[in-house]
Amino acid sequence: MHAYDLILTLTGGLAAALILGFVTQRLGLSPIVGYLLAGTLVGPHTPGFVADSALAEQLAEIGVILLMFGVGLQFHIEELLAVKRVAIPGAVAQSAVATLLGALVARAFGWDWSAGVIFGMALAVASTVVLIRVLADHNDLHTQAGHIAVGWLVVEDLFTVVALVLLPALFGTATTAMPLWMALGLTAVKVTGDV
Tens place of pLDDT for every residue, the chain, 195 residues? Predict the structure, then answer.
């Protein structure tokens, strides 16, 4: 039976995504809504067919990699440079405000500051893939507003890379944290690679 887990997970997931993506598109919504509903439908919390969750998680990671590759194909560094006066300050300010508000809300619920900052940073991140798909569906991807939106989210993605590298150095335990100089060096390498 184990040999069929991959086939069943792919078939069940793709069939549900196809059907629900088509239905949501016919309703005037983005197919991404249907894909999210399909994931819920074949998940462990609904009756009927349940996909192998460990295998689905690995396939989801591959899917995210492919989606980010698609973002890279759609995005050109010249577009970010053309809208840098709006995208960079806007993304930095929005990320800072969302992180601060998230940290304050978390602190009000009794969390410590490090957990609050991480919560706020999670709130500050938007999905570049979803936005690009929605803009492409509405033929707005290659407009001035589309370039600003994508540039804004790419700056947020770069901010997220910096945050993910620095968080263990700043908030990790002594046994798990790398030295701050090493985290900053790794951040510079990753950000340079993303650009």
Answer: 556 788 888 888 889 989 999 999 899 888 888 888 988 888 888 887 777 778 878 887 887 777 777 767 766 777 777 888 888 888 888 888 988 999 999 999 999 888 888 888 888 877 777 777 778 777 887 788 888 888 888 888 887 777 777 777 666 655 555 565 665 666 566 555 554
Distance, CA of 104 to CA of 96 (rounded, Å): 12
Chain-centroid distance of CA 69 in Å reads 13
Tokens of 92: 């930095």
Q: Distances in Å between the alpha carbon of 195 and those of 74, 112, 113?
A: 14, 34, 31
Long-range contacts of 147-150 (CB under 8 A, 24+ apart): 147/79, 147/82, 147/83, 148/83, 148/86, 148/87, 150/74, 150/75, 150/79
The answer to whether the beta carbons of residues 120 and 106 sit under 8 Å apart is yes
Residues 156 and 194 sit within 8 Å (Cβ to Cβ)? no
Provide the 3-class DSSP secondary structure of residue 132: helix
How far, in Å, CA of 143 to CA of 124, rounded? 24
CA 86 to CA 91: how far, in whole Å? Answer: 8
